[in-house]
User: What shape does this take?
Amino acid sequence: MLLSGGLDSATVLAMARGQGYACHALSFAYGQRHAAELEAAKLLARALGAVEHKILTLDLSALGGSALTDPAIPIPEQPAAGIPATYVPARNTVFLAVALGWAEVLDARNIFIGVNAVDYSGYPDCRPEFIAEFERLANLATRAGVEGGAFHIHAPLMKLSKGDIIRSGVALGVDYGLTVSCYQADAQGRACGRCDSCRLRRQGFVDAGIPDPTRYR
Amino acid sequence: MLLSGGLDSATVLAMARGQGYACHALSFAYGQRHAAELEAAKLLARALGAVEHKILTLDLSALGGSALTDPAIPIPEQPAAGIPATYVPARNTVFLAVALGWAEVLDARNIFIGVNAVDYSGYPDCRPEFIAEFERLANLATRAGVEGGAFHIHAPLMKLSKGDIIRSGVALGVDYGLTVSCYQADAQGRACGRCDSCRLRRQGFVDAGIPDPTRYR
Assistant: This one.
């Protein structure tokens, strides 16, 4: 499963554990400004009982094109129309591809990802049709797929609101104080409170009727 | 375009240049034993007129599962049935995914890869159905795809024999003495002459009726 250190993937890890899966968690140091999320991912993998946790380095900032990896592109602090500047070209395709390779090595067939089409409808690689297409690809791309085992890509948050996600996670014991969602979190993981990700997260706690444990700076 | 430093992708680069494409070449330091191929890729990018050449690091050896990235798994030196031990789980999916991200940043729509279904029929991610499926995915996964520009994945070697590939490349001026195909090439890029890749390559020169410029050790 893909574990970013944010709120969504922490919830997915708790859900998969709750369904009895032995979870192998994968994170990426991809040149993101908010590298504090990787420290959060380490804590979450341990707290939520992952079997193991790997952090792979792949410097997508070498390719540019996103506010998340290029310090010269500012993080938007106001809602805007269209696909936001924080979109990282093909990021979920890359992450799922690496997860697929690892799943094949582990002889696993279930891959979990915390994408969500409700709050982040601007990201093309968070839509259900993308996930369904990647699942088809996975079964053509691999020895495991060809030899008959079918991969399944699980995106259990796809149709949930942020409030629903938070309520589900709290019920499963997730400590959201460990998670880092902010696109410009500081080195201690403290949030700006102003970026898209912070605003959606804060509203999620309001909607869920649950106190917001986020550490703002 | 994906450029490994081997014979096939060098030929693809020459073909794409011959068709007038401005070529941005992408290689991966993925933990492969035959890292000498990356030195070859640098020389080839320059010799064949790529606009630029990037080498990204992504340590797939951290995932294991392949003779190409795990020194404990020997490179096969005899032909065998089934998918060979040199198969790297999901490698072409990962490489194409990163190439897709870069193509989107460059506002390019054409991605070239040197896969071939004739000689390497054992690799699931070298088949035409895999390439067609990845093209469908690319157009769902990206801002560029969603906004109307269609990506095209070019695999011009797909149905060529090794001999045909070599003949095509020689006609386009490729210096195959610069390429490194051997799965266990030494640090100077000299070939073993015994692995699958060496055997297919050597037979290709025989079939093409062209002297083999490979440096064997």
